[in-house]
Design goal:
Layout: H1 6-13, H2 21-31, H3 35-39, H4 52-59, H5 63-99
Length: 100
């Protein structure tokens, strides 16, 4: 529950009042959404936001599931980076060998 009256919320919704960061976080917590969800329409480049599909997936998880997914994604990202590094190194080595 946010400790402000309906008129105050209405002025925020209509752009006549800017909420403090503390109030913005309280509103997000009350609505059970992230502050990003509240601000996405205000961003100059909303496409810079993480994938909605991944975000929605995480919203549907309990804390253990979130931790497991984040660990898995971190591991997969490291594997992808390692694969890209090895591939780049292999291409560079091949190029050097062919010029020698």
């Amino acid at each position: 529950m946010v400790a402000v009256n309906n008129d105050h919320i209405s002025r925020i919704e209509n752009g006549r009042l800017r909420p403090s960061l503390t109030l913005l976080v309280a509103i997000a917590n009350s609505l059970e959404v992230s502050v990003d969800d509240l601000l996405v329409d205000s961003l100059a480049n909303p496409n810079a936001m993480p994938s909605d599909e991944l975000h929605d997936l995480l919203l549907d998880c309990n804390e253990n599931e979130k931790e497991m997914l984040i660990r898995t994604a971190t591991f997969l990202k490291a594997m992808l980076s390692e694969f890209a590094y090895k591939k780049t190194t292999r291409i560079a080595t091949s190029a050097l060998m062919s010029t020698a």
